[in-house]
Amino acid sequence: MFNRNTKKKIRFSDYLSEEVARDYINQDKPYAEQIDRAAKLIREADYVLIGAGAGMSTAAGAEYGGKFFEENFAEFQKIYGKGPYMQDMYSAGFYPFPDQESKWGYWSHQALLAGADLDVTPLHKTLLDALEGKKLFLLSTNADHQFEKAGLSAGQIFQTQGSYHLIQCKRGCHNKTYDAVELFRRMEQARQNGKIPSAFVPRCPVCGGDMAMNLRVDNCFVEDENWHAAEERFSRFLSACVNGKTVLLELGVGFNTPTIIRFPFEKLTRQHENVSLVRLSRSKAMVPASLGDRAVGINADMAQSITDLASKLRETEADAP
To answer: What's the pTM value of the predicted model, to 2 decimals?
Structure first.
């Protein structure tokens, strides 16, 4: 059943969904026709809610494994070997480091390369420039701040899974996070043989225990006041956009954490006839057949898709299909 207008405030917890579509299809329309259709939906929309997953950062140029990891983490591969952990930044993050000095020797390096010092923003800027004039908000499972670096206001961003800039009490004993970028830089300078000096190891200012990255890996993840403020802004935007012409622009979201972006985007499109879904992915852009013409799923190189979509959006209304 469609619900065109609602006055009810939509909380983040109400937005989330675990409902799996049973009618996924890969659309077989020609690529150029899909780009045209996606551009038309966006052009006619007042609101665009961007949902960005890891595939967006990858498409923009972020690297996590392969040659990049070999070149930038050789120090750690030499110490810990090239087994199943030390193959890429995701796997290495789960390595059972023998002590805090070793743990932060590694994590400070990753936090800088994957977050604070990462700059793969040209594709993000291309997209944001093309969406100029739309009411925008970003919901992201990434922790790398690339949309913010590309110019999107922090007040328009909700990074649900944490940040490479922040640390917290490992046990989550109190509801606060700490900006650690400058500490990471000092660790980077002081590291020797994979370890930092003991004096650099962060300790929880409340319980005195170990600290950890503010990344959602367990039930101890800290949702601090800034997280909740972003959640509130997202709720306000969502409550407004479901009453207007809206496109949910999903970028590089797979099935790792589908309950945060993928499944909820499908639910919103089912529930509101004024909401459309544009899903871009290299290989996982299947969409529910039941959404009909209000869903466009483009399985293609995302950097090319975003570039082509942006180019189409820059065309004048007279030139547009």
So the answer is: 0.94
